[in-house]
Design brief:
The chain has 189 residues and is mostly helical. It is 87% helix and 0% strand. Helix 1 (3-104) runs antiparallel to helix 2. The termini are far apart.
């Protein structure tokens, strides 16, 4: 081999190596681009999944807020009704006590007192006519009327049964109020 042959061979090898280097650089660039786009697509999918999860959580929070609002409204309504019911029980108790005090007042005739009739009527209006003790209560109240012109003993004889009946009615209504409140609280949990 002579020297003249070696120079073209060396140049051919250098040209060949430059082509390989260029191919390797292009391949490396393509590989870097492929890794970059793969990472971008993967990250894009993860971001899409995070966004979907966030949307689901947001939707659940809105549903929870709506449900909580409804529960709060129901609870507030139940509390308001229980306040009205408690005021009704208090009023009924006060009217029953006032009526009874007129009925047994010694040396007086409550039948001549307008307030006595007003109290009796108010008690009847406050009571539910379907109440199981309504008729018995009316009978007891009219008993005070029939004993009004009698003596002290006759007036006092009406007292015990009337008070026991009133206590029974008020206790039942109080228990119902507590039951309604307890039921409302457990229902709204």
């Amino acid at each position: 081999m002579n020297e003249d042959n070696l120079i073209p061979m060396a140049e051919a090898l250098l040209d060949f190596k430059i082509d390989i280097i260029i191919i390797n650089i292009v391949a490396l660039c393509l590989l870097v681009l492929a890794v970059y786009f793969h990472a971008r697509f993967k990250k894009s999918g993860e971001l899409r999944e995070i966004n979907n999860n966030f949307s689901n959580v947001l939707k659940q929070q809105q549903e929870l807020a709506e449900a909580t609002g409804k529960i709060n409204m129901n609870f507030a309504g139940m509390l308001k009704i229980s306040d009205f019911r408690q005021a009704w029980i208090n009023s009924l108790r006060d009217e029953m006590a006032e009526f009874q005090s007129y009925g047994i007042l010694p040396n007086s005739d409550p039948t001549k007192e307008r307030e006595f009739y007003k109290l009796g009527t108010k008690i009847e209006l406050l009571m539910n006519p379907d109440d199981p003790d309504y008729i018995n209560l009316q009978t007891q109240m009219y008993g005070f009327l029939s004993a009004a012109d009698g003596g002290r003993l006759e007036k006092y004889s009406q007292n015990s049964d009337f008070v026991k009946l009133c206590q029974k009615i008020l206790k039942r209504e109080w228990d119902r109020l507590k039951q309604d409140i307890d039921h409302g609280v457990t229902q709204n949990k």
